[in-house]
# Entry
Amino acid sequence: MKRHLSLLLILSALSCSDDAPTSTPDMSQPDMQQDTGEPDSAGDMADMGEPVDPFNPGLNFTPSQEGVSPDGIAPAGPLGQGEAGVGRLTSEPGFTGIWAHCRVGDFKLHNALIEVCIQSETTNRNEVFTGGLIVDAREVGSEADDIFDMLAPRIGFNVLYAEEVEVVRDGSDGGPAVLRVTGRDFPIAYLLGVLGGRFLDTLGLEVVTEYRLWPDRRDVEIVTWIQNPNPVLKNVAPGDWLAVGDRSSIFYSSTGSEFTGSRRFDWLATWGPGSSFGWTMGESTAILSLPVSDIPYTIFDPGQITLQSGEEHVLRRWFAVGDGSVESVRQTLLERLEVDAPTRTATILLEPPLAGKTVELWQDETPVTLGVTDETGAVVFELAPGTYSAKVQGSIGEGSVETDVDLTEDVTINLEPPRELTINVTDPAGPGIALVRIAGGPENQAHEAFTMPEGLNGVLRLEVVPGTYSVQVTRGMEYEIFQSSVEVSADTTVDVELVQSVPTPGWIASDFHQHMEPSTDSRIHVRDRILDNIAEGVEFAAATDHDVVTDLRPILNELGLEDYFSTVPGMEISPTISHVNVYPAIQDRSLRGNGTIELAYIENDEVQIRGIPEIFAAARAMPNDPVVQLNHPRGSSSLFETADYEPDQDPRTFTHEQWSTDFDTLEIVNRVGSTCALVADWSTFLNTGLKKTGLGNSDSHSLNGDPAGSPRNYLPIDVQMPGEIQVDDVTAALKAGRAIVASHAFMTLGDVLPGDTLTGGSHTFDVRVQTPSWSSATRLNVIVNGQVVQEFESDGSGQFDFDQAVDLELTQDSWVIFFAVGPRPQGTPYGNPTLAFSNPVYIDVDANGWTAPGETGTLPVVDVSAINNPAFCD
# Structure
């Protein structure tokens, strides 16, 4: 995958050690000296002869407060002005939402303005082995869900391995509250696991970090000491790994809301629902990697340093917490940069008063700040008087509006008054949730959003400027696509009646591979992923984020949509050698990755790396007997490519250190171009008696052009409502091979189900293939024991693309797959080719038990090349 390439690219830039790396880092590095409140060496620190002011320790270790417990004072309520505190949590932390990682036993650093959670020696993050990092932060009194991801001190490509987390000063004397983390540098667990232990190793450096919070400050001061106890020099690139979370947007002091040009900046701020954050070193620094890449971290890189044996380096920076606006943290960051300029409070008002619009200010081609208008259309800034260039987010169809404003006084900016465009969707088979795409207006802007239930219909209201718009409404492959052109000059309503042209009674549509915001390479809000599934007609899905267990059920219940969709927690274990899905999974938010199968873990002080056989074994050891799914077996990060497996080899006797066939299902369709090769691989598995269920999954990471359920799997489970689906029925159907794979086409085999075993040699199969009007299946292939034995053609017209009686005369035990294919739909948002295929039906000719055709003797020759017509495989 691209994200693995990104890891390798920045790895070379961050490589710091002069020693040859090993595959399993050495855990036996010397411990950091126990601190006595005095620095271990002179380095960049204050003169040893000078006493350190505990209220202003600067680059020195903070002197310990007499009588303070290492656990501090357990937070018991809000603090007042002039107070700061820190203590180990003995009750629920209060951070909520899918991004919350704070636990009982972690530490809360807080004052009257902000509260920050720093983990104890253990962690529930899958990226690291230990705690000692910031995982949650918010304003005091905020009721919004936590949106912050993590901040971890970094040392080269490593992070601080926390051996001890203790309170140094608890703030009870009116001074700062200080938490100290003592440990060493150590590779990031996630990267060790993903890369299989390659390239990464400890540098053997001793590391201490202090988190300091003063009363009535919005920022935490972070000071890190890095010491080299080794007999040889070490080249080190210190800094931070900052992941602000997918719900935040970033504003850079050098480039504004878009990261272009220079990689250097003085400060950055993020803003999102209910919380904002800021970071600065008090001077210009650089960004080594961007959150817009496949790695969701901003890696701050003040530059590489050389540490001779015994030398020490000190790094100080500040992390600010605000109310969701850039302005609430910007002034704090400017203070740390010692920017002292006269300011005034200036208000910009939009007319008409539009809420939720961004206003970005620049001066002399330099970005200054960004704000979001409130319910009155106003946004307030604290700025030096003068003239600024304002870039204002307009309504749909208008784009952004740029104008100069003189902020020596309050200013009103006039915008085109929007009209309300209402999309009213009627769906006899559901709650009216559909995906609406519109495009047009003076700036030909595109926008997409979901309708939401209101009464018996689904409704979406949009603010658009006058103009002509195309409106497209989709509800997945079972429905016709609504398309219309609308002229908007006044408030306008478009009524849409959805038509289900491909009914699937007795079957449920399912998707067992999809991603959302907990994955490192997806930004889809968990709420939107639920709506996406319902809007695409997916009735059951497993949440399979990379190396973390995600459970959508609490969010589904909050939305009140549990009747229309069912889901289970799952995970995708994602080393570069292959990816594996496991579902249902058991979520435990106290454990690393919420209970994921850890790729890299520490046992008896040694790092252990799981390969594919070990991942399968860990899944089999789970108490709930989950489905183990081999993902995209060909292409990058695939088992068959890693092991150099080819379909003329017997998978039962094939050997490779990563080879195992201990999985239940495998994806035949994910990366569409690999489908033909995977049908050949699958055929050999079936020929040798390895009954593996073939699936088609979306592996969706985004929404537009990459929806859930494209492709999908139909399982023969009969329920009135999707909320009635039982998980045990789903797993039983999957393990029994009772699946039809579908991409814009639905197939049935009459009274026969995939996975059935039929006796006798003569059989007639009633094969029906149906598509919506915007798709067509033009060829039907019959595959027996890995050979295409019959072909049928269709022009795709009529109620069914195929309604075909297929006669087979077989003289030996066999398996049969029906495979229909057609061209890629044109003029639709669905890019995959049309296809549908069954899992095998087994034919026991002599009724004495089914025997695989290649179970003994020579393997049958496999040739399924005929299914690539029309061509869609590489």
Summary: The longest strand covers residues 275-289. The domain at 508-867 is CATH 3.20.20.140 (TIM Barrel). Residues 1-23, 28-48, 290-296 have pLDDT under 50 and may be disordered.
